[in-house]
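call fold(seq) -> C-alpha cells
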Amino acid sequence: MCRPKPPEDSTPEEEARVQNRQAAFLRKNDFRRIGHTRFFGYSPNPEHPSRLLQAEGDADRPENKFVPTNPVPADRDDFMRTYPLHFAIIHLPKQNVASVIDAYHTQDPCSIHKQDHNGFTPLYVAAASANAPALKALLELGAASDLNNHVNKDGMVPLERLEDTMRTTRELAELLMHKWEGYSRNELKVQLILKREMGISVNGQTDEEYLQKRKWGCTCGECVQGWLSPRMRFRLETEAALSKDNMTVLAPQFRRGQPLSEDNPGLCLPLQFDYLPLHLRQKVYKTFYNGYVTIFENLYLLLDETEVVPSVPHLRTLCKGDRDVNFYLKKGGKFEYALESMVEGAKSQSCLGDSMFEEIWESEDDTDDEYRKLPRCANDLEFDLVKRMIGVPLKGPVLPPEMLSAAVDSERGPSSLTLKMLVDMISGVYEDEEDEEEEENYSDLLNPHYAELAAGRKQARSEARRAAAAEAYAKSQAGGSSAPGPDLAFQKLLSFLPEGGVRAPIN
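ret:
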C-alpha cells in the first residue's frame, strides 16, 4: 500500500500534476485506488478484483471529479453574506442556529440546499461539525434529499463526513495524548439521527442504548462495557492460556535455592518477563516465578469462565490469599505487568504483528470455527484501548492536556481544534479570526537572540489583546458596540434578510 505524495512546498497546480503522474505510474504496475481515498493498494493475487480492473476504470480522487460552480468568498464578511447558513452552523451558538435557518428558509426555501464553493450543503456542514440543532432544523424543513449527496470536494455524504471527523479526533487524541475519552454524546446523537433518516438499522436500540454501546467505538453491539469485543476477548484468552502453559513448561529449570537470571546463559526467562522492570529480572526465585504464573492462570480463568473484563481489582480478588502471588507482590511485582504482557502478546500475533493468530484461527482447515463464528467489530484490534481500560499505563511522550483538552472533550462535541481541522480542509475561509495567531518566522531560529525575540513578540501580543479587551469593555460600558462576537454575528446574519423575514421568535 502507498500514497502518492508531492514534494514539500508544492503549489496546488504542481501538487495535482505530480500526484496524477505518480498515480499513473502506480496504475501501470497494477496498483488500484482504495475506495475514494488517496491510498493505492496492490494484491499479489492475480484473481483479486483489483487486478481485474483496468487502469482507466480505476476511481479518481473526489477533488478531481468536483467542478466548483459557486464563488469563493473573499473574506469572512463575504462568506457570511454569500453562505449565511454555512456560517451560522459553524460559528453561531447552537441555540441560535435553528432560528437563523428557519428565517432564511422562510425567505427562500432553496437556501437549505445551497452548496458553497466546495459543494458542501448546509446539511453536510451540520453533520461535519456535529451540530445537532442545525441538523434537526434542516431535516424538519425538508433537507433530507441532501443526505446522499456526495457531489462535493470531499466526495462524501454527510454521514461519511461526520464519521471521518470522529475518526480524526480519536486518532489525534490517541496519538498525541495517549488518551481518548470516547466519542462524545453529541457526535453519536448526530450519527444516530443521520442513520435513522437514511434508513440504516441500529438494531432497535433506544437513543440511550446506542449512545452507551457506541461511546467506545463498538459496532457489533456485543462488546462488554462497549469496548471489549468477543473477538478481542478470544484473543486475550488464547494469549493468557499460551502464557501460563509456556511458563509452566519452563518451571523445571529451577534448582533448589538457585534463581533464574537474564545474565545466566544456561537458564532462560520466558518472554512474559520482558514486561517486568529490569531489577526484578536480575534474580528470579521460584516462588516469585510461580506467583507470576498464577496471575496468568487466573487471567485465563477470568476470561474463559466469566463475563467480566480483566482488571487489577478482579485479579486481586481471584489471587487473594495465594502465597506465591503475595510473595511476587511483596518483592515489587504488579498485576499490571501480566496484563500488559497478555495484551502485547496478543497484539504481536495479530495482523498488526506476525499474523500467527490469523493463520491458525482464520483457517478453515486447522481449527474449529469457534473464533470465526464470533461477530466482527471495529474494536477487534483496539489493543491500546484495551490496555487503557484494564488499567495498563500507556508509555511514550504525551502532550500537555491544555494543548489538546478541547479535542477530546467528551461532552461538548466537536471542539475548536476539531473544527479548525475541519475548516482548514474546507479552504480556510471558515477560520475564526479571533483564533488567528501570528505566524512564526522560522528563519529567526538562526538568530542567537531568538528566545528573547520570541518572548518579546509574545508579550506584545498579550498586551495588544489586553488593550483590545479594555477598549471593548469601555465601549460596552459607554453604550457603544463591542468587539465582534457570536451575538453580533447573529444580528448581522439577520440583517441580510428583508424586513419581516424572521418567522420564529429569536432567543
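The chain has three domains: 12-65, 72-215+397-432+483-507, 230-389.
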